[in-house]
Design a protein that fits this description.
It is a single chain. The chain is of the alpha+beta class. The strands form six sheets. Strands 16-28-27-26-17-24-25 form a seven-stranded mixed sheet, sandwiched between helices. The chain has a six-stranded antiparallel sheet with strand order 8-7-9-15-10-13, with no helix packed on it. Helix 25 (719-724) links the parallel strand 26 and strand 27. Helix 14 (412-439) runs antiparallel to helix 15 (442-456). The longest helix has 37 residues, at 751-787.
């Protein structure tokens, strides 16, 4: 039963909102505060995903929720509810469609500025779902016109920002050059600078101006407010100076000091706009794929199914399967949906879902999971769960819930701006009034007030995070490390525990022959050679590993012996006549390899001592296979998942960084313990035999104990835990789902690179915080000086430029981060 159904029974329900226009942490707080004022309503707003999960009592309508958010200055839509079980054939399609819109809808708008300006047709439309409590049909459930069913189909913000950023950069370069370099100045250059800067501070900066205006209508302020006022003040002050004294730039170099133009700050307005647009562009790109994990997860499912009706096979889209249908799964095909095997036996590769490194043997009566791969025999499966009830869809919901429930990590500058912005505005007004009352000089009063705004103009604040992030992520890309955004850096600093998925992360996920135990007078080499010869004819992954080991052990890399009369039993083993030395007496051996049941089926019964030897091998965490020759047990071949080179050294380094490593796996306790011992993880720090839900529970357990938890994995089965963790790290050799659900991606497969990613992230965060310190430090010194009338705008502009240079220079130090 879904959360919605449970809550509805108790008089409440959960609705999901998409919210457009939020730009910082103060926006999140405002929405949560306004919704919380409705009786019985609780809201959790996620800034990166621009969404909210709202618990609503039955006496509050959906329309009231939407109207409350809209009245706060943002735009909200009710995300369509998940289809009910009665619509099973279309559920997965509908869910995937909704996720595709999430990908673009949560891509990161540039505030209400961009959304309202470029997409002002998002109001009420046709196709609304209607209020659950009978409220009027309106825009709360509607899709924007032309969206083809999408609830927020207006494209990624980066696409909207790109032309503004390019135009601003092209125009800012000459403005900066002629304003700051006297040798490039010419008669009346100020008018040229004014003309070039005008499109930058108007059209290019329009997202900031419009967001500031929308917030002002609701008596609120954000960083957009200060950006807008600072940019406009710098430009308008410069324009006023130019119009008041048209001849001030008549001669090159006139009215300059130290290369900074006296009274003209067109370059300040242009540079601030360009760099802040760059920051927003980078931020939008980081958000752009927030919903792709879920879409990629569902895309792993089979697209088609061969259903058996009245003894005739019919190929249909997998989404059209209904519970009770019997469908055919051939070797190499994906299983279309969760079901029960009715006929046939095989080995199923379930590693994408369960994390098990060894294929699972299935036969009549066995449960199978959709999206797993049938590796050998033909199966008939009766569908038991379809659509949104499948294991795959449930994993998708786990990822979604983990992402929605993750507390938004606001940028430090945004948090401080909640106090900083209004304080600066008040100081500027008070400065103007004070000096006007004291001196009666309008020009001096305006100059002092503008000096406050110019010195407080958040150029360095805007540069602190994006330039540090740009440099750090650029260096990371050179090292094969992808950092998704500044919020990731906050978590790397405080991480004190890391869960390492075994298969594909600590180990390679590929079985290899460990050793061969010979019985009844045979030699290990003969046992491996005979087993490899007969296994070479099989498609089973275990057979491939044994055949490969036997081949590599052959003298002079010769071929394996030939086999005739080969037969196999999926889920059991193989049998064949191995021909030695071509022909002749004694040159043929009947070889049977497989599980105990397969040997007994062929009339071969190991004695108690031999069975104990097999049990000992399995107890040590190995997969053990019998090899019998001419009707008698001849040996036991053991296989293990191989540990990646460098895993032990990386785990030791994690401990040096103050991070406690823990092993997490779907394999049994014996396998987990063997791997943990080999790489240096304590026995008490091992979670074995866990399914995807259990991995999420393991993360939550550590979090409830007060740990800041990182999770490293590479499979679909890790996606939900990666999203739930405070820091999700995907190994690049893994699936797209794991990568999209994570915060950090390590493109290589070496755990040492994971350690390097954490070190680089921490270094980048330290750099950004140093940047922010200096950005605020010069404000703390400069604003009081400007308010006292002791700082003219020219010096204020120079101080602001100096702070920006310091921030950039400090960030560039990250380029030397070593391997």
């Amino acid at each position: 039963m879904s959360n919605h159904e449970i809550l509805h029974q108790t008089g409440t329900r959960i609705i999901e909102l998409d919210i457009e226009g939020m730009t910082c942490a103060s926006c999140v707080a405002r929405v949560e505060r306004k919704l919380g004022k409705l009786d019985g309503v609780e809201a959790s707003v996620n800034l990166p995903l621009e969404s909210a999960q709202v618990t609503v009592p039955d006496n509050v309508t959906d329309q009231q929720i939407v109207d409350t958010v809209n009245a706060t200055g943002y735009k909200a839509w009710i995300r369509e509810p998940r289809p009910s079980p009665s619509t099973a054939p279309d559920r997965e399609t509908d869910m995937l469609g909704a996720l595709e819109t999430d990908t673009e809808g949560s891509a990161g708008k540039v505030g209400a500025a961009e959304a309202s300006g470029d997409h002002n047709d998002h109001g009420a439309g046709t196709g609304a779902q209607g209020d659950r409590r009978g409220g009027a049909q309106g825009n709360h459930g509607a899709h924007p016109p032309g969206a083809q069913g999408d609830h927020m189909h207006h494209g990624p913000a980066s696409r909207q920002l790109r032309p503004r950023l390019i135009a601003a950069a092209i125009l800012t370069v000459p403005v900066f050059a002629i304003s700051m370099i006297p040798a490039l100045q010419f008669p009346q250059w100020g008018w040229v600078a004014a003309a070039l800067a005008l499109p930058v501070v108007t059209w290019a900066a329009w997202p900031f101006h419009r967001a500031a205006a929308i917030n002002a209508r609701h008596f609120a302020s954000t960083m957009d407010t200060l950006v807008s006022i600072g940019v406009l003040a710098a430009y308008l002050y410069s324009a006023w100076q130019l119009f008041a004294n048209p001849m001030m730039t008549e001669h090159p170099g006139m009215e300059t000091m130290g290369g900074v133009s006296g009274g003209l700050y067109f370059e300040v307005a242009a540079v601030v706009t360009t760099f802040l647009l760059l920051g927003r562009f980078l931020e939008a790109n980081a958000k752009a794929k927030a919903g792709d994990a879920l879409k990629a997860l569902l895309n792993l499912g089979a697209k088609d199914a061969t259903v058996l009706r009245d003894g005739v096979e019919h190929k249909i889209p997998a989404e059209q399967l209904v519970a009770g249908d019997v469908f055919v799964v051939r070797p190499g095909e994906k299983i279309a949906t969760d079901g029960l095997v009715t006929s046939g036996s095989s080995a199923v590769d379930a590693s994408l879902v369960t994390g098990e490194s060894v294929p699972v043997e299935v036969g009549p009566g066995s449960q199978v999971t959709g999206a797993t791969i049938n590796t050998s025999g033909r199966l008939l499966v009766r569908a038991t769960r379809v659509g949104s009830e499948t294991t795959l869809a449930q994993m998708g919901r786990l990822v979604s819930q983990a992402q929605t429930g993750k507390a938004p990590i606001a940028r430090l500058a945004d948090r401080i701006s909640a106090v900083f912005v209004p304080v600066v505005l008040v100081i500027a007004v008070v400065t103007f009034v004070f000096w006007l009352a004291l001196s009666g000089d309008l020009n001096a009063s305006f100059t002092a007030a503008v000096a406050v705004l110019v010195i407080a103009c958040p150029c360095a604040l805007g540069l602190a995070t994006p330039v540090g992030l740009l440099t750090g992520t650029g260096r990371g890309a050179q090292l094969g490390i992808l950092i998704k955004g500044p919020q990731v850096l906050e978590d790397t600093r405080t991480v004190d525990a890391i869960l390492l998925d075994k298969t594909g992360t600590v180990t390679s996920g590929k079985l290899a022959v460990g050793h061969t135990l010979a019985l009844n007078g045979h030699s290990p080499a003969d046992v491996l050679s005979l087993a490899g010869a007969v296994e070479a004819a099989s498609e089973h992954p275990i057979a491939h590993a044994i055949a490969a080991a036997a081949k590599s052990a052959m003298p002079d890399a010769g071929p394996l012996p030939a086999v005739k009369d080969f037969s196999s039993a999926p889920g059991g083993g193989v049998r064949g006549m191995v021909v030695l030395n071509g022909a002749g007496n004694g040159a043929e051996r009947t070889v049977v390899a497989g599980r105990t049941g397969w040997l007994e089926h062929n009339g071969i019964f190991p004695d108690d001592a031999q069975r104990q030897a097999l049990a000992s091998e399995e107890a040590g965490g190995a997969t053990a296979i019998w090899v019998a020759v001419d009707g008698k047990p001849a040996g036991i071949v053991t296989l293990r998942d191989t540990i990646k080179p460098g895993s032990a050294a990386a785990i030791a380094k994690l401990k040096e960084l103050g991070i406690r490593p823990l092993l997490l796996t779907g394999d049994n306790a014996a396998v987990a313990a063997q791997v943990a011992t080999a790489v240096g993880i304590a026995p008490e720090d091992v979670f074995a035999g866990v399914l995807p839900e259990g991995k999420v529970d393991a993360v939550r357990k550590l979090q409830s104990e007060g740990s800041t938890v990182a999770m490293a994995g590479d499979g679909v089965n890790d996606a939900a835990a990666l999203a739930q963790a405070d820091l999700g790290i995907a190994m690049g050799s893994g699936t797209d789902v794991a990568i999209e659900a994570s915060d950090l991606t390590v493109m290589g497969s070496d755990l040492g690179q994971l350690v390097q990613a954490i070190e680089l992230s921490r270094k980048t965060l330290t750099t950004i915080k140093t940047n922010l310190f200096w950005a605020f430090f010069y404000n703390a010194i400069g604003i009081p000086v400007a308010a006292l009338g002791l700082l003219n705008p020219m010096i204020a502009g120079a101080a602001m430029a100096a702070s920006s240079v310091l921030v950039v220079a400090n960030s560039l130090r990250l380029r030397s981060f070593a391997k």
